[in-house]
Design a protein that fits this description.
The protein is α+β, with helices and mostly antiparallel strands. The protein has one domain. The protein has a three-stranded antiparallel β-sheet. A hairpin with a 2-residue loop joins strand 1 and strand 2.
């Protein structure tokens, strides 16, 4: 193993997903894409995932709390609060 590989963050063969919520009948319903739990491959890079999140937000006005998560355990990426799209309730972004 190269030293640079040993010191790099260990993401393994994982990637990223875009997570979001939809307001339906007074409730928030969570979802994400791509659907890695059903065999779809994750998004390769975090920046690409944020770009897809922006495109998704522009085309899906009902979606709120749009952010990027690591695909292997669905935890938001570090610093997601600063880039979160359409936080709900309004003013909840840090």
């Amino acid at each position: 193993m190269k030293l640079s590989d040993a010191l790099a963050p260990n993401r393994g063969p994982y990637g990223f997903v875009v997570s979001f919520e939809i307001r339906k009948r007074g409730l928030l319903e969570g979802d994400h894409f791509p659907d890695v739990r059903r065999g779809e491959g994750p998004i390769a890079s975090e920046e690409e995932a944020w770009q897809l999140a922006d495109k998704f937000a522009a085309n899906y006005a009902q979606a709120v709390n749009i952010h990027v998560c690591e695909s292997h355990h669905f935890v938001p990426v570090p610093g997601y609060q600063k880039r979160q799209i359409r936080p709900y309730p309004p003013g909840s972004a840090r």
